[in-house]
Amino acid sequence: MKRILSGIQPSGTLTLGNYIGAIKQFVELQKQHPDAEFYLFVADLHAITTEQEPKDLRQRIRQVAAMYIASGLSLEQTTIFIQSEIKEHAELGYLLQCHTYMGELERMTQFKDKSKKQTTGITASLFTYPALMAADILLYDADYVPVGEDQKQHLELTRDIASRFNNRYGDFFKVPEPLIPKVGARIMDLQNPAKKMSKSDASDKGYISLLDEETSIKKKIRSAVTDSLGIVAFDPENQPGVANLLTIYASLTDSTIEAITKKYQGKGYQEFKNDLADIVANTIMPIQKRFFEIMGSKELENLLDKGKEAAQMVAYRKVEKCKQKIGLGRKK
Ligand code: AMP
Ligand code: TRP
What we know:
Layout: E1 3-8, H1 16-32, E2 37-42, H2 44-47, H3 54-70, E3 78-82, H4 88-97, H5 102-106, H6 109-117, H7 124-138, E4 144-146, H8 152-169, E5 177-179, H9 214-222, H10 240-253, H11 257-263, H12 269-295, H13 299-326
Helix pairs in contact: 3-12, 4-7, 4-13, 7-8, 9-12, 10-12
Bound molecules: adenosine monophosphate and tryptophan (TRP).
């Protein structure tokens, strides 16, 4: 049976980028692979690589878990859990750090970008984070890892670490495959389409939060930066704003970019944006409604307890075997 695993950091409210790049993929993959097992977790240990307010963090951890459920995943097929509740993530993270080279971590563009934004207070964990991410995946012998484009490099490193370990100690870790969506793997900021849409952004005009109000969602789409050409065409180089909107449109309606550009041929941006504003709002609002029901219910606690138990069993066995392979402890 195939295992599909992914995680999302609770470092801000989830955005339309997270939905299109990650969550929507999970739901589609479940339909395509009805007998696969899904492991989805809240990557809270990753969130604390940068400073977090404890009260907010606790709230956001619940929110990400509730959002997984609200997005329409089949709960029989999915184990949803909180990363920090399974101690083996940190433990295997350390064991894998011992099999990861400084040079490899130094090449990670996400570390380079994040550490460029701040000059002081860069934590050691921000640097070693890809080894923890490798542990998240390798603990569960995941076959596939659906993620957005920004995680591709971390996935490649995970594969390298797994192969290195296997070469050294004999076959042990499953070498996972990334699954990156063809359309929508990188949704850009609505105000600055040269930048990825991100929840940790200071200005909230550039991103749509899955918890935004309907009027605000529509307004953000209508006021998204475009250009003065006035042609709905897919040209990421010269019309990056319009290309981004087209990507969102195509992804949420499951249509091709060609079909959409044809539909708006000879029409201006206004009609295109108005339609897209409705599409985005009609996607998010039902999810939001379920989200608020789940946040206030006992169902969430029960599911997370169940998820913890199931994940724990798999993770414990894997780490014990891993330690044996390395030669740690007394047991052979
Ligand atoms: P993060 O919010 O960084 O924990 O990311 C969670 C998932 O959402 C990962 O699979 C990311 O690759 C994906 N993701 C985040 N931002 C975007 C974006 N702007 N466009 C597409 N996918 C994204
Ligand atoms: N690093 C990922 C991100 O920032 C989140 C993440 C942590 C993850 N561990 C993972 C994604 C394991 C997939 C698999 O988006």
